[in-house]
Amino acid sequence: MYFPIAGSTFVGIYALPSFKYADWQLLAAVPLGLVAGGLALITVVAIGLCTKLAARLGERTILRATIGGVAFGLVGVALPLTLFTGTDQLTP
After folding, report:
1. pTM to 2 decimals?
2. Contact, 45 vs 38, CB < 8 A?
3. How far is CA 62 from the centre of its chain?
4. 1-10 pLDDT per residue, tens
5. Residue 63 φ/ψ, nearest 5 degrees
């Protein structure tokens, strides 16, 4: 949604290809939207669980930060494409 509002890409570091609309894309958007809604619900539940787990640690801020850093590192190793802006994966 950034491109139609701002008229440029994120920080202007890549160009979007031309796009031609087809009617089937609107039909494909419905199941994709349902999947996205399901993933959003899973995200809300995961955030709730993480909040409860972090609340148990109370004042142990160093332990909480260490666990968060380890979790972030594991996600980075398992799913490296999910980190940062993703511009490294775009072909010029």
Report:
1. 0.57
2. no
3. 26
4. 556 656 666 6
5. -65, -40
